[in-house]
Amino acid sequence: MFPNSVEDVFAEVKPILRSALDGHNVCIFAHGQTGTGKTFTMDGTSEQPGIIPRALKELFCQASLDSSSYITFSMSMLEVYMGSLRDLLSPKPACRPHEAVTRCNLNIQTDPKGLVEIEGLTEVQIADFGKARWWYNRGRRVRSTSWTNVNEASSRSHCLTRITIFRHGDASEAKREVGKLWMVDLGGSERLLKTGATGLTLDEGRAINLSLSALGDVIAALRRKRGHVPYRNSKLTQILKDSLGAGSKVLMLVHVSPCEEDVGETICSLSFAKRARAIECNRELSEDLKRHREKRVKELEENMREAEEECHKLKNQIQKVDLLFRENRKLFSTTYGPLEDEKAPISPKEYLKEAVETPRKPEKTSKGNVSNSLPRFMTSTAASRQRQSAAEREVVGKARSLRSVARSSIQFTASQSMSYSDPQIKAILQNANRKSRYAQEAADTFPAESPKCNVSESSKTRSKLITSSDPNLRVTLGRHRRRMSDLI
Ligand SMILES: Nc1ncnc2c1ncn2[C@@H]1O[C@H](COP(=O)(O)OP(=O)(O)OP(=O)(O)O)[C@@H](O)[C@H]1O
Questions:
Q1: Do residues 170 and 63 both lie within one domain?
Q2: Do residues 110 and 145 share a domain?
Q3: How confident is residue 181, by pLDDT bands cut at 50, 70 and 90?
Q4: pTM across the whole model
Q5: According to the UniProt record, where is the region Disordered (predicted)?
Q6: Would you say 145 is a known binding-site residue?
Q7: What is the value of ipTM here, to two decimals?
Q8: Do strands 25-32 and 248-255 pair parallel, antiparallel, or not at all (unpaired)?
Q9: Helix-strand-coil split of the chain, %, nearest 5
Q10: Same domain for 255 and 305?
């Protein structure tokens, strides 16, 4: 029967509240057949607050977030009952403090700018949501209701709650009104036969129907963009003149009955809503609103300029880091060999992007393991490690060979060819050859003075074999011989 919760409906209402704070005149009204839940939607209950209490809360919430200026609110409540206005927040007389009193027959004034004011209507300052709620409940209690066949507490009037929004600027700027928010619970359109209304209740029903029809005429005129809009045909449309149509925003909540016997009223309500939806008004904004808009635009432009400057600075910093990174990378690859991703290097920008996009996980790095803390592209790969260790092995091997060749006294015969291609090694081998020849000559000349070295006769022909009694030296010599035979 009631498919949408008030919460869902309020989600649709919320954005228009922002427009009211921004300086638009806003009107939210609940329209529909009697007994379909207009009052329930607007007032709600203590467990499930309606649109009006929620809107009040939201206004205070949004105002507290506005850093550019200080916003205050005032509140008025009235009902349009049988063609006259009744002030729902009028103070109680001192002699009858417990009696609910309403001031009647208030006059509606329109100033040269077209702004509507209601003479003598009580306007209370609401400092916070608590105060606002208190005043709202007070006004609600004195509203006229009657029993009908359709609704046991049927509203017999249109109830209008007005929130006036004031913006306080810097010291030079005085408090100024920026907008009005009207929240209206319209009386239900009713088939008088169906409601079974008689007497006063019947008159009330007729008055409601008449003013709803005047509202329909205004909406039709606004939709057709006619020069003359018949606002003066009812009190309801006179009050809402500056908040319906021109320069304002209107939100209509349409309530319909799901019952088959109500299909006629449902069609009426829906076609009313369809007409209202087609209204588009683009009248000039008020001077106050224009000034506020210009100020806001300037503020936003300034914010944008600052953001652009910041962005430019960051770009420069990224470029510098990029350059530094490339230099370091070059240095790294010159020292340790080419990196795995040399073919498709990841730039710091890409790395930064990857780092930003990838959620950071807590790293479990072993102490002293530098490669874990390096970016991926800086860690060595299996291939580069293999290449590096092969190169190291080669260098170590060369060094060992050179050392052993230099230290040994092996003599090569002139017939032996030295096929080793490295000229350095060739030179060292020749040098070693020369040294061993001197050693041989010395041994020949002074045999007694070189007891440890015996050159065998057989080696004289092809190669001279150096022997030694020292077992360590013998092992070393054997190793040298093997290496030399590999080299030659
Ligand atoms: N969404 C809802 N959930 C539960 N009960 C609801 C809901 N909407 C309306 N009702 C109940 O339906 C009955 C009629 O609702 P309500 O008085 O709000 O209708 P109305 O459209 O304001 O009628 P009228 O035009 O005669 O004043 C009330 O008893 C109300 O509690």
A1: yes
A2: yes
A3: very high
A4: 0.58
A5: 355-395, 441-466
A6: no
A7: 0.96
A8: parallel
A9: 50, 15, 30
A10: no
Residue 385 lies in a domain: no
Q: Which atom of ligand 1 is closest in space to residue 2's alpha carbon?
A: 1
Which residues have any ligand 1 atom within 6 Å of their CB?
Answer: 2, 34-40, 151, 153-155, 187-188, 255
Report the distance separating Cα 135 and Cα 162, nearest Å.
12
Q: 197 with 305, same domain?
A: no
Q: Choose one of 313, 343, 378: the last residue of a domain.
A: 378
Q: What is the pLDDT of residues 93-130, one digit of tens each?
A: 666 555 555 566 778 888 777 788 888 889 999 999 99
Give residue 35 CA to ligand 1 midpoint distance, Å: 5
Query: How close is the Cα of 389 to the center of ligand 1, in Å?
Result: 86
Same domain, 420 and 271: no
451: which DSSP letter? T
pLDDT tens digits for range 382-428:
777 777 777 777 766 765 665 554 444 444 333 343 444 445 545 55
User: Is the domain of 89 the same as that of 39?
Assistant: yes
% the chain with pLDDT above 90? 20
Does 309 fall in a domain? Answer: yes
How many domains does the chain contain in total?
Answer: 3
Residues 247 and 319 in one domain: no
Residue whose C-alpha is closest to residue 269's, from 43, 10, 29: 29
Residues 6 or more apart whose Cβ sits within 8 Å of residue 227: none
The one-letter amino acid at 364: K
| Ligand 1 site-directed mutation target among 6, 9, 39, most atoms within 8 Å of CB | 39
Q: Where are the alpha helices (DSSP H) in 254-380?
A: 263-277, 287-336, 348-357, 370-373
In a domain, 447, yes or no: yes
**Residue 415 domain boundaries:** 390-487
Q: Is residue 386 part of an annotated ligand binding site?
A: no
- Most ligand 1 atoms within 8 A of CB, residue of 29, 38, 40 to mutate: 40
